């Protein structure tokens, strides 16, 4: 059985220590004692140390939203995975579509970051997903396959087992247009099938695949009920403690 994982990707919000603390003050009591679902909060870099202080005695794991693939040197504006490790970060989101589309990050770059994150013992959450035009042209599977081939290039079985994959259709991110549970499940099955062919069935069945894109308390349950959807990566709705809590509760498969 795969343990569901719910990530809150705060994006460029709640990034001052005070905003971060106020948000976590509301969330921590709500999710107290929940251990059946992995909960990850990815704050902006500027709030990570404040978040760490508040989360260190809870089950909530701390995540970053990006990192560079070198540990130190002349890389103005970049963040070393070593800095993240040192301040208590456990997860890192890589290859988010906003990184890819706004900052032109490629599959190749994401692959380098991924290998480095694994080397540094950070848990990567790697995002993949298609544009609306690609879906409408019937190219979703081809795009997903290409992204996985490039992004997971040269990863061993041991390495891929540490990766959480987030399927985030770009047309569903921040648009209010969620993929239907059936649309999402179809791609999740395709991803698992790809992993099964590249590695083996057992490996594929152990890897967690999150859905992301306009998840809300009202649609979370139906998405998470699907066999191959192992939780979600939540943007907008993670900025409200109560909404995020409702989404976490929806990930208990037995309900
Ligand atoms: P929204 O939940 O705001 O659509 O964002 C999804 C996302 O990009 C999470 O990484």
If you had to describe this structure to a student in words, what would you say it looks like?
It is a single chain. The protein has one domain (5-250): Alpha-Beta Barrel (TIM Barrel), CATH 3.20.20. It contains twelve helices and eight strands. The protein has helices at residues 17-31, 48-55, 81-86, 97-102, 107-119, 132-136, 140-151, 157-160, 181-198, 201-206, 217-224, 241-250, and strands at 5-9, 38-42, 61-64, 91-94, 123-128, 164-167, 209-212, 231-234. An eight-stranded parallel β-barrel has the order 1-2-3-4-5-6-7-8, surrounded by six helices. Helix 1 packs parallel to helix 12 (241-250), helix 5 (107-119) crosses helix 7 and helix 7 crosses helix 9 (181-198). The radius of gyration is 17 Å and the shape is globular. The site of 1,3-dihydroxyacetonephosphate has 14 residues, from strand 8.
The geometry reads as: globular
Mean pLDDT across residues: 97
Secondary structure class reads: alpha/beta
Name the quaternary structure.
single chain
CATH architecture: Alpha-Beta Barrel
Order of helices and strands: EHEHEHEHHEHHHEHHEHEH
Give the secondary structure arrangement, pairings included.
Blueprint: E1 5-9, H1 17-31, E2 38-42, H2 48-55, E3 61-64, H3 81-86, E4 91-94, H4 97-102, H5 107-119, E5 123-128, H6 132-136, H7 140-151, H8 157-160, E6 164-167, H9 181-198, H10 201-206, E7 209-212, H11 217-224, E8 231-234, H12 241-250
Parallel strand pairs: 1-2, 1-8, 2-3, 3-4, 4-5, 5-6, 6-7, 7-8
Helix pairs in contact: 1-2, 1-12, 5-7, 7-9, 11-12
1,3-dihydroxyacetonephosphate binds at residues 9, 96, 168, 173-174, 212-215, 233-237.
